[in-house]
Write a structure and sequence with these properties.
Chain lengths: 363, 363
Amino acid sequence: MRIGIVGGGQLGRMLAQAGAPLDIRFTFLDPGSEPCAAVHGQHLQADWQDPEALNTLTATCDAITFEFENVPAEAVERLAERRPAYPPASALATARDRWLEKSLFRSLDIDVPPIARIDSQADLDTAVAEIGLPVVIKTRTMGYDGKGQKVLRESEDVAGTFEELGGVPLILEGFIDFDHEISVIAVRGRDGEIRHWPVVRNEHRQGILHRSVPQVAHPLQAQAEDYASRVMNELDYVGVMAFEFFVTAAGLLANEIAPRVHNSGHWSIEGAVTSQFENHVRAVAGLPLGETARLAPCAMLNVIGAFPERDAVLALPGTRWHDYGKAPRPGRKIGHVTVLAADDETLETRVEAVETLLVNDLG
Amino acid sequence: MRIGIVGGGQLGRMLAQAGAPLDIRFTFLDPGSEPCAAVHGQHLQADWQDPEALNTLTATCDAITFEFENVPAEAVERLAERRPAYPPASALATARDRWLEKSLFRSLDIDVPPIARIDSQADLDTAVAEIGLPVVIKTRTMGYDGKGQKVLRESEDVAGTFEELGGVPLILEGFIDFDHEISVIAVRGRDGEIRHWPVVRNEHRQGILHRSVPQVAHPLQAQAEDYASRVMNELDYVGVMAFEFFVTAAGLLANEIAPRVHNSGHWSIEGAVTSQFENHVRAVAGLPLGETARLAPCAMLNVIGAFPERDAVLALPGTRWHDYGKAPRPGRKIGHVTVLAADDETLETRVEAVETLLVNDLG
């Protein structure tokens, strides 16, 4: 069994690491000369849309998956015509357009923050008048980790914003009063079976995920699972999907989905019976899904922009080190540390010890 | 960092899988054309003693380790002259000779079953007269998984045995009355720090390991750790070592050591904070050792000679599948299944369910 992955970054790398014990092989389609996943399989160096490369991928692989959502629709369709390719093109298309995504949530009775579709400065002026400041404006497509967005706080911030962001389709989101952010990672098999991991409490810094801690008794676990299942069933989804929420006094407000394995699920490599990576591989390959229970209290801390002293981290109790094999650059995710402990109190002490060593450079 | 491994079987394969998140690369020296570890690194196809291959290994790798103990002493010395090579030659030499091994145990006040050194039929006759039947006769070197040995039950079995086993140096071991077999996996760093995993209760079938279950409260844990530490310190050992014992009414009787990662430690991949494979890599690479605590009740079942229906195993709760990428052949270890559960009772039920599916062919 060989799985083709469109993209050769750390998510592809960790998918290959998860597939290795199952004796599944991988091919990565990536235009880079040395994408970090390439050490774990074959590398097709070509543009995502290169017809010859796509043909090679379908000719040599049994199933195809994607490491990110910004895959051109033509490429996805070309692949799906010839091989099982998951998640489906419709899921990728929805997830990469913030307006389509929020509209899907609303159609499934999933609450979202106040939003408005912005196709002109006039739209923006109207929406700000209705919703009030502050708001955040984001491009409908592309952009991640806080890129491609702008916060409007004062009325003088509003004028010219549409042009400033490139005159492209935008979405306006009202600020909401939330207690914390969570995500639920879920997986759906080819047969429609769905499993969820415990919800994860996430802490961001400068818009980039800093820390994720799975919660085994979060009061909104059932609601998060229900929402994730609605979306996956609606999209006839196959594979792992992450769903991010704001936790408010009124319950969950949907932020966004990621149609792939997700940074907030990295803890599951060591911390769950089956990791998000293995279950994504199982789902794409058509295998039965693995159990998603948490094995022990744990947390994941991102390594961003610069490495801490590795050996100092490894010397701390309960730490596991993930180096993505990427050159450090400000704001770039280059690794993560999983911290495990027998109880929550010990975990907190251990996480603090790791945080003291981190030298993240968020750019 | 690149580690050279002498041997390219499943132990090398799982070492490479454990090293991947640490961004450590591997080169395997193996005479086979497609050893199963080769998918995870570079493969030097040559005899273990090939001088050119050994030179390439030391020229391209930062440290060297071994997948098995039957490495020619000259090869080990040649490697160790140029690069850190662990475990040390003395440990390999001791572990591959059953008489040297048992003599070491005795010199460290570690109890062993009745034994005798057999260099002739006369030695054998004398030892049988002293120790009494039944006894087991083993070649001093080579042989594993029940190969290269013979049980003498009746006095007519004794005559001609020395010739029958090839006229090579032998060791005679008296039968002992034991309750069960355990092993302790331990790791020693370059700095002399030692860590032990919980002892493992092992069940063999036809001399081949069938099942291993780590025990978090075994009454002889401390004695097993003490014995393993004595041996490792005496040998100035670096890396993972397994130590097998018989549990008797009088305590532990030492059976044998394996100077490498060991089948009875495979459960630690999912079941411990840090696996035996990762800690062996950490030790050989000179990194701090990871925590060895068990994360959850778990068991390891070997897949031998023939694969069960994979998807049926994966569909059972709590199972993780390890396919070594080897062609099935009677008696050959081709994979294993790890079973995890939240409590011992559930574990037992789950293990029984997996055992029902196994179709092992022990040959």
